[in-house]
Amino acid sequence: MSSSSLRDRKLRIAICHPDLGIGGAERLIVDAAEELATRGHHVHIFTAHYDPNRCFDETKQGNFLITVYGDFLPRHIFCRLHAVFAYLRCLYVAVCMICLWSSFDIVLVDQVSAVVPLFKCTVSKVIFYCHFPDLLLARHVTMAQRLYRRPIDWLEEKTTGMADCVLVNSKFTASTFASTFKSLDAKGIKPQVLYPSVNIDQFDFRPVQPQVDGWPFFLSINRFERKKNIGLAISAFDLLLHHLKSSNQDGDMSSTQLKLVIAGGYDERLKENQEYLRELKDLADEKGISERVVFMPSCSTERRNQLLAQCLCLIYTPADEHFGIVPLEAMAAQKPVIACNSGGPKESVVHNATGFLCEPIPQSFSSAMSILLGDLEVARKMGVSARERVKTHFSRHVFGQNLEDIAFRILN
Questions:
Q1: 54, 176, 183, 277: which one has the fewest Cβ atoms less than 10 Å from its Cβ?
Q2: Are residues 228 and 123 in the same domain?
Q3: Is Glycosyltransferase there in the keyword field (predicted)?
Q4: Are residues 283 and 185 in the same domain?
Q5: H or E element: which one contains 109?
Q6: What domain count does the chain have?
Q7: How confident is the model over 186-212, as a mean pLDDT?
Q8: Whole-angstrom distance, CA of residue 257 vs CA of residue 404
């Protein structure tokens, strides 16, 4: 079939994803499904867990199908063996897809590469999206843990290399992929960068006076996980308040009431989410600023968009983040971003133009916050530049076109 006639086909595309919640990986999968469906392709997401009460709104609009298999399988045993059960749940999903559905043109596998060999036994072409090597995310502390992870790590590398195409979310992840999966790099298996995206139209609103409950505020949006380092935002905010007070820039702080809002994904099923939220509240209490720090776990998409429209800027604290979708959302909402000078934000945020790239220490973040607080016109101009950058490089339309091109290329 010629490449021109192939592109006229409407493809049958399946997506195999472990848990369709509200994280960054899920955001990418939903955007992929939306864009491919918009282009006329038949898209079907298969997953081991989907909760209509805790999901992205697009999953409820009916533009693509969602089928759940294996949610009855445990996620762990006494908070142990998470990786093993994640693999088992995904393998169950893959077996059901193969046995109960006719073959697809393309299967997009997300996060868990162990299912790739199963799909390679069918006529489908397989794309694997590697957000980050899982073996680097696991904690290898004790000898027992290292022995437990060894076969899983071997399986990850072996099965990742079996995909027809490997995609990663940033140049940072691509370089990490090469240094981690040395056997694949030696074979010339190079991942292609496909940046995550945002729906520009979703943030097509006029920025308003930055305030929450009547007061100006900085905003942090992240899942409540320790690796997101949200405590850095609290410590930086505390330093900023001390600086304003000592330099008499705040006037009467009891009337100004500058705030820090900490919002993001929160899952009651996850023990770490519960513990980390308590730790963050304790940190705010310890610094004596608990009345200035507002926690909004599991806020809705509508509420998140309101916060982005009203905040002074986004404080994004993870170091060595694989990519980071939240900075793109803030930039699309015409807000500058203060982020760590490492990982994916180095590719999305332009220092001194769309925000600030800082060392992951409170002093550095606090200084950047002070600049934006002291000159709202600078913040406004950075926000305008930020939206233009997202529109040009990270819009969902650009993402969808690139993904469709990749699909047709591997079919051809």
A1: 183
A2: no
A3: yes
A4: no
A5: strand 106-110
A6: 2
A7: 82
A8: 49
- Structure confidence by residue, pLDDT tens digits, 322-374: 999 999 999 999 999 999 999 999 999 999 999 999 999 999 999 999 999 99
CA atoms within 13 A on the CB side of 225: 13
CA dihedral 260, 26, 301, 265 (to 10 degrees): -40
Residue 263's pLDDT band (cuts 50, 70, 90): very high
Which residues in 164-175 are b (16+ Cβ under 10 Å) and which e? Answer: bbbbbbbebbbe
Cα–Cα distance measured from residue 211 to residue 217, given in angstroms and rounded to the nearest whole number: 6
Alpha helices of 101-230 — where are they, by DSSP H? Answer: 116-120, 134-137, 143-160, 171-180, 182-186
- Enumerate residues 6+ apart whose C-beta is below 8 A from 227: 318
Separation between Cα atoms, residue 347 and residue 172, nearest integer Å: 8
Q: How would you list the strands of the sheet with 337-340, edge to edge? A: 293-297, 259-264, 217-221, 314-316, 337-340, 355-358
DSSP for 5-55 reads HHTTSPPEEEEEES-BSSSHHHHHHHHHHHHHHHTT-EEEEEES-B-TTSS
Same domain, 221 and 160: no
Dist CA 113 CA 131 (whole Å)? 11
Asked if 291 and 227 sit in the same domain, the reply is yes
Cα separation, 385 vs 329, whole angstroms: 14
What letter would DSSP give residue 74? -
pTM: 0.82
Question: Strand, coil or helix: what is 384?
Answer: helix
Closest C-alpha among 183, 151, 197 to residue 30: 197
Specify whether the CB–CB gap between 278 and 231 falls below 8 A: no
DSSP 282-347: HHHHHTT-GGGEEEEET--HHHHHHHHHH-S-EEE--TT-S--HHHHHHHHTT--EEEESSSTHHH
Rounded (10°) angle between helices 325-332 and 376-393: 110
CB of 153 within 8 A of CB of 135?
yes
Q: Give residue 22's pLDDT.
A: 83
Q: Which domain holds residue 161?
A: 3-197+395-411
The vertex-307 CA angle with 301 and 313, nearest 5°, equals 130
Question: pLDDT value at position 67?
Answer: 98
The reply to whether 141 and 239 lie within a common domain is no
